[in-house]
Amino acid sequence: MMQQLGFGFDDGVPVVAPAVGGSSRAARQTKPKRPVTLSTPGQPRMAAPAELSLLGAASDAPDAAIAAPLPATPTPAAISPADDFESLAQRLEAHADYRVLRRLVPRLYFEATALASEPASDSASGSGSLPGSAGIARLLILDTETTGLNHARDKIMELALLRVDVDRATGQPVGPVLVYDGLEDPGQPIPAEVQAITGIDDGMVRGQQLDTARIAELLDGVDLVVAHNAGFDRPFVEARLPAFAAKDWACSFADIDWKGEGKGSSKLETLALGLGLFYDAHRAEMDCHALLAVLQATLPTAGRSGLARLLQAAPTPRYRLQATGAPFDAKDALKDRGYRWDAVQKVWHTRLDDAALLDAEAAWLKAEVYGQRAARVQVETLDAQVRYSGRAGVVEWRVL
């Protein structure tokens, strides 16, 4: 876990010169003691420039040498309130050589800023706008902690949900955030490595069950379910709670071009650190709060929030294109193009985000892979109710 930066300040301690002609023992006794730097308990201390100058003056020096006294600094009582630490953090932030991390504080209410001036169109959401809430979309941010990575074998042991309304015009949350976080006994031992990551042990989940009635209440009227790596969470959730299969899903990991937004990593902890936030990761509720904070921020390239990006992208179908019957000698070109090999179906395939990209890719296949010969390739259309579920979309054949 990352630690918050401590700030050190030293009381002014004048250096007393040794008595002229005194013994070396007397001289050593008059040297100043190492000053104490204040910091948050358990955190590393920082030496202020004044302290460094004082320590430098503590070496053996001629008897006549007298160091200048340090300026007076705040006492512990003077810097104990949190507001004073925040002012110190702001002073550090104003300096080009420092960056400050703050612990993420979950927000449970968002003031409305500028609501949408016009009702949202039916196509703006996979499930339609909320009744009586023009321009408002209802999102459910979700995270799971599981006993392993295989949804066919492993089970959910923690599920967290944040239900939040989003103003489509601003892409910002409005109103209250409703929270659910529940543990469940998976009916199997929790592996030691999973316990080490999550802090959840067998004793914590023994006899626990998810509150399915509360979950159904939060799911009602939701336009979009959002998870960071929905391809992992969705199969687990649908296996336990089938009602989630009828909802549109979005993936904040895959549906936002984080690299194009200048981010070196799509990992949630790294994205939060980029906003100056740290949190206790790998517990479902805090991961949800961190994701909401990340998605609320404006994407530097897109110029809108991550929430707005997901809402806009959700209704657009995606496509899985197979290079059916591609010649063996085209494998390097396909691999360089970003195609992946499906060992089960024994075919190269790629995913495309819209119909225009699909048309362009089909033209490339005909020219570069099939040598302008007639070919028949498989196209699978994936809408938001199927994406990331592992279920098949609508499959059709396309003649090139």
Fold and architecture overview:
26% of the residues lie in helices and 19% in strands. With 400 residues, it is of the alpha+beta class. Strands 2-5-4-3-6-7 form a six-stranded mixed sheet, with helices on both faces. Strands 10-11-9-12-13 form a five-stranded antiparallel sheet, covered by helices on one side. A two-stranded parallel ribbon has the order 1-8. Helix 8 crosses helix 9.
Secondary structure layout plus pairing:
Blueprint: H1 24-29, H2 49-56, H3 82-93, E1 102-103, E2 109-110, E3 136-146, E4 156-167, E5 172-183, H4 192-198, H5 202-205, H6 212-219, E6 224-227, H7 230-240, E7 249-251, H8 268-274, E8 277-278, H9 284-296, H10 306-313, E9 318-322, H11 331-337, E10 340-342, E11 347-352, H12 355-369, E12 376-382, E13 394-399
Parallel strand pairs: 1-8, 3-6, 6-7
Antiparallel strand pairs: 2-5, 3-4, 4-5, 9-11, 9-12, 10-11, 12-13
Helix pairs in contact: 8-9
Annotated CATH homologous superfamily of the largest domain: Ribonuclease H-like superfamily/Ribonuclease H
Hey, roughly how much beta strand do the residues contain?
15-25%
Biggest sheet: strand arrangement: 2-5-4-3-6-7
Overall tally of domains = 3
Unreliable parts: 1-68, 115-133
Write down the Rg: 29 Å
CATH class annotation of the largest domain: Alpha Beta
Number of helices in the DSSP assignment: 12
Tell me the series of helices and strands, N- to C-terminal: HHHEEEEEHHHEHEHEHHEHEEHEE
Strand tally is: 13
Please give a handful of descriptors for the protein shown.
disordered N terminus, Nucleotidyltransferase, domain 5, 3 domains, six-stranded mixed beta sheet, five-stranded antiparallel beta sheet, 400 residues
